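Reply to dn_fold:

You asked what the input looked like. This is it:
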Amino acid sequence: MNSLKFVAIVLVVGGILGLAYGGFSYTKDTTVVKLGPLEISAKERKTVNVPMWAGIGALVAGGLLLVLGSKKG
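and this is what came back:
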């Protein structure tokens, strides 16, 4: 599999996942207080929303790369 097909498949899968889930979340450790050797930290949950136009754009771009790349080769 050449790199163009790989990028196209990644874009298509990413576009489908972006449309299906609409975003993703992750946990970030943050230091709240640090007094000498004593350190208090907290975990923050962050959410990243993927816009619908980005998912559709990735899906279309991946599909075009897949179709046009196969016609070229």
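The radius of gyration is 20 Å.
Hope that clears it up.
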